[in-house]
């Protein structure tokens, strides 16, 4: 974030973008200091400021926005993570402390008084939290460490449980693309019951992380339609005929399929009207309880009673923060707007990438999660594709290369990111080798980016990454080529998802992108060229934080609905168009064909080895 609004005609590259896995304050400290000198809390009139909190994989972040969706300031605080093979765990206590630090820091840096914050919303990864009747953490770890009560979204310990659940062929699975991922909650719950029986008996509430955050802030146990529908098999469309979105009261949970829970061996979660997994649900942005509790307000440095909106998963908050960030045309009718939004797909690009598209009618797409009713935008059906490792994969590829330490030192000496330096190296190589265009540098290097399985559209958690074209070269230039080929492989994966969705009823022709990777101009340009449609970046870089703040604005009744708030607080920034050079399209079409063949070859290899070991 440069502090200056980007006009639609601004084609200046987004240089100085951060590394994709980290979380960043979008204002430099000097800009914040400059802003702080222009006004003081005591002298400035009270504003209507909305606070968004986002808990990602590596940090908790807080962002403050005005009613037009303009970022006033933000801050982040790291959170602890434990990794042991397929097990990835965190601490809800540690996360809450990080949130409190980030909120206080953001308010201080942005010069916002606690009494100016009129609404609060939470977003978080779809991680699983376990607490007892007192709200204290219950361990979900082999270690027995009581702090480790969160199974992180990327944890793959429950692959075998997911396979067993999918073999049941329950009707609820058709609303998850035909099968559950081990990243969803039922397989993880089954794993805990089968492996940590003492913990299982102690848990009083199982919650998605963003629901736990809103519960911790308000004491209200109402769950979000976003989390329950997308990650718990809750059938949100059970409410279609029973409630109008404008009547946003919490609703008795009538969308649980009790037969499903009984069939997979988790029938005890049905007890007490589903008390452990959610007795009531609400649309995102619904005001919870009596707002922020006095205890939570003191910890956060805010005022008690501030409205807190029902939460969203972080990627879905990104969707809310960017879905309406399109250039404003002269006099389009509102009727057209309702249909136009269905032609867009949002890429929320960070550690992983989520692909969000909505429709007025439900579309069943094999291998793609959904259709989820009202899980992101009320009264629309959500289709959710995804890639489990994108920013994480680029970090892995770069950091594990022998040239990485020297490259990192060179980048640090220039005060730029490793990825900006790699992009510069590629530009130089293109000129030196007289390549017709930058992408052509990888004609001999091909990457299947399934290092953490394939989430969509193949839905194969056992899929592995593949690289074709290695040599004995270990130079920085070779690393740059591998990096570019990996970026392209990720983009081919997105093209596969878009084509698959369009073949099953969608009509996606515009991409909107946000998240850390969206700040990398090479990443975005390769996606535009490979998918073949324009990519719109939002005015504000911090779309997930904006989406979370929109929940607070809706809870505070600043807007009558989430849809209205999105239109008011979203705004377009730079638009990146695909190359008009037909040679670029021909090149990517050829590489895409190889990309698709790599997975077919892997299946063949898997079969050959299975027969050999039979």
UniProtKB/TrEMBL annotation:
Parts of the chain that traverse the membrane: none
Pfam assignment, any one: FGGY_C
One GO BP: pentose metabolic process
Keyword Ligase: no
UniProt cross-references to InterPro entries, sorted A to Z: ATPase_NBD (IPR043129), FGGY_C (IPR018485), FGGY_N (IPR018484), FGGY_RbtK-like (IPR006003)
GO cellular component, one term: cytoplasm
GO molecular function terms noted in the UniProt entry: D-ribulokinase activity
CDD domains: ASKHA_NBD_FGGY_D-RBK (cd07782)
Signal peptide start and end residues: none
SUPFAM superfamilies to which the protein is assigned, alphabetical: Actin-like ATPase domain
Residues annotated as domain Carbohydrate kinase FGGY C-terminal: 346-556
Entry keyword set: Kinase, Transferase
Residues covered by the Carbohydrate kinase FGGY N-terminal domain: 50-321
Domain of life: Eukaryota
Family the UniProt entry places it in: Belongs to the FGGY kinase family.
Stated name of the protein: FGGY carbohydrate kinase domain-containing protein
């Amino acid at each position: 974030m440069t502090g200056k609004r980007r006009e639609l005609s601004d084609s200046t590259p987004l240089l100085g973008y951060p590394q994709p896995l980290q979380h960043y304050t979008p204002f430099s400290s000097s800009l914040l200091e400059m802003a702080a000198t222009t006004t003081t809390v005591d002298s400035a009139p009270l504003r209507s400021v909305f606070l968004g909190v986002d808990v990602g994989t590596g940090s908790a972040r807080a962002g403050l926005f005005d009613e037009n969706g303009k970022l006033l300031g933000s801050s982040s605080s790291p959170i602890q993570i434990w990794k042991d093979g397929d097990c990835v765990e965190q601490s809800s206590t540690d996360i809450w402390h990080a949130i409190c630090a980030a909120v206080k820091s953001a308010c201080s840096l942005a010069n916002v008084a606690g009494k100016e914050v009129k609404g609060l919303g939470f977003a978080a990864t779809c991680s699983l939290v376990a607490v007892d009747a007192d709200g204290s953490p219950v361990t979900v770890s082999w270690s027995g460490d009581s702090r480790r009560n969160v199974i992180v979204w990327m944890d793959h310990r429950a692959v075998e449980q997911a396979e067993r659940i999918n073999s049941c062929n329950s009707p609820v699975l058709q609303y998850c693309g035909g099968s559950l991922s081990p990243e969803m909650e039922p397989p993880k719950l089954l794993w805990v019951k089968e492996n940590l029986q003492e913990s299982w008996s102690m848990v009083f509430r199982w919650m998605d992380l963003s629901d736990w955050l809103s519960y911790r802030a308000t004491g209200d146990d109402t769950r979000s339609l976003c989390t329950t529908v997308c990650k718990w098999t809750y059938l949100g469309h059970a409410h279609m005929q029973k409630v109008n979105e404008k009547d946003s009261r919490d609703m008795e949970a009538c969308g649980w399929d009790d037969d499903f829970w009984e069939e997979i061996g988790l029938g005890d979660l049905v007890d007490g009207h589903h008390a452990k997994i959610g007795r009531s649900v609400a649309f995102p942005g619904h005001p919870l309880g009596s707002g922020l509790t006095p205890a939570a307000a003191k910890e956060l440095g805010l005022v008690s009673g501030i409205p807190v909106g029902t939460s969203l998963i972080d990627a879905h908050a990104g969707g809310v923060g960017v879905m309406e960030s399109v250039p404003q045309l002269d006099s389009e009718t509102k009727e057209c707007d309702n249909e136009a939004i269905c032609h867009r797909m949002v890429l929320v690009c960070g550690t992983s990438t989520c692909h969000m598209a909505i429709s007025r009618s439900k579309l069943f797409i094999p291998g793609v999660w959904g259709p989820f009713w009202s899980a992101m935008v009320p009264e629309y059906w959500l289709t959710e594709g995804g890639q489990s490792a994108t920013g994480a994969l680029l970090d892995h590829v770069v950091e594990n290369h022998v040239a990485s330490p020297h490259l990192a030192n060179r980048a640090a000496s220039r005060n730029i990111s490793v990825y900006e330096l790699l992009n510069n190296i590629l530009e130089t190589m293109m000129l030196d080798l007289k390549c017709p265009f930058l992408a052509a540098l990888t004609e001999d290097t091909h990457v299947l980016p399934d290092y953490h399985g394939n989430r969509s559209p193949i839905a194969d958690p056992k899929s592995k990454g593949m690289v074709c074209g290695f040599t004995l070269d270990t130079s920085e230039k070779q690393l740059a080529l591998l990096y570019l080929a990996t970026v392209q492989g990720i983009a081919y994966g997105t093209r596969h998802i878009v084509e698959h969705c369009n073949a099953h009823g969608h009509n996606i022709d515009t991409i909107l992108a946000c998240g850390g990777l969206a700040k990398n101009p090479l990443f975005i340009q390769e996606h535009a060229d490979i998918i073949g449609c324009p990519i719109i970046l939002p005015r504000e870089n911090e779309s997930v934080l904006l989406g979370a703040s929109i929940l607070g604005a809706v809870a505070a009744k600043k807007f009558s609905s989430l849809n209205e708030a999105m239109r008011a607080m979203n705004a377009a920034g730079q638009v990146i168009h695909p190359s008009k050079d037909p040679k670029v399209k021909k090149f990517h079409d050829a590489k895409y064909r190889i990309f698709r063949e790599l997975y077919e070859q892997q299946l063949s290899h898997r079969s050959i080895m299975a027969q050999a070991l039979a």
